[in-house]
Amino acid sequence: MTTTAKVVAGLGNPGSEYERTRHNAGFWFVDEIARRAGESFRSEARFNADVCRVRTADESIWLIKPMTYMNRSGGPLRQFLDYYKLPVDGLLIAHDEIDLPVGDVRLKEGGGHGGHNGLRDSIACLGAGFYRLRIGVAHPGHRDDVVDYVLRNAPAAEQSELDAVVDKAADIVPTMVSDGFAIAMNKINRRARKKRRVKPESETKDGD
Predict the structure, then answer these.
(1) Residue 187 in 3-state DSSP?
(2) What is the pLDDT of residue 2?
(3) Which of 46, 71, 83, 205 could disulfide-pair with 115, CB 3.0 to 4.6 Å?
(4) Over the chain, what is the mean pLDDT?
(5) Burial of 23 by CB count in 10 Å (0-12 exposed, 13-18 middle, 19+ buried)?
């Protein structure tokens, strides 16, 4: 049976001081989907999240941004899925990924948290059966620098590349909704392999 996207969640931190930090790449992704659909997020206190319903590929899907700060992301997602009786395997979580270079993006099913606290809490609350959109922000070079790095704004040239990859990743959302994650995964990961021209992923995994 084909598994299609029902909910797309973006991970990030609320507040203007975090808006353009690398750690908010997941927020940028769902914001772009909403923008394309001409829709806006609204605050939902019962979930402690901002939510938005959009139509794409002739289907209606939910977008959600937990407003609990990164390391408490899982609770709002669990509450939202339970309230609407939606399956975990229909959930895509978009997040920043230090083990991918800037400009790289990958779609993945399941797996561990890799030191990312937003994923760590999501797995604790939901299990690991959701899909992940990993938006590359690159590694600062030393694990002790990771927290400060992801909580800073990227330089202008790097931000331009991040915005471009978020835009291209949003192009694949209709495929996730109409044809399923497996086909979307093949498309986006094949594109990433063709583009990639840097060393393999770092073995060092960390996060705030």
Answers:
(1) helix
(2) 77
(3) 205
(4) 92
(5) buried
Burial state string for 195-206 with b = 16 or more CB within 10 A and e = fewer than 16: eeeeeebeeebb
- 134 with 105: CB under 8 angstroms? yes
Do 185 and 109 form a contact (C-beta atoms < 8 A)?
Answer: yes
Q: What tokens appear for 40 in the block?
A: 């806006």
Tokens of 7: 């909910």
Which H or E element spans position 56? strand 49-56
What is the rounded CA–CA span in Å between residue 79 and residue 191? 35
Biggest alpha carbon–alpha carbon distance for the chain: 46
The three-class DSSP label of residue 156 is helix
The radius of gyration of the chain's CA atoms, rounded to the nearest angstrom, is: 16
Element (H or E) spanning 13, and its range? Answer: none
Mapped to the 3 state alphabet, what secondary structure does 102-132 carry? CCCEEEEECCCCCCCHHHHHHHHHHCCCCEE
Please tell me the predicted confidence (pLDDT) of residue 195: 63
Catalytic sites, residue numbers:
23
* Structure token digits, residue 34: 């909403």
Instruction: Give the model's confidence band at 193: pLDDT under 50 very low, under 70 low, under 90 confident, else very high.
Output: low
Q: What letter would DSSP give residue 133?
A: E
Q: Rounded CA gap, 11 and 73, in Å? A: 7
Residue that is written with structure tokens 């949003």 in the block: 170
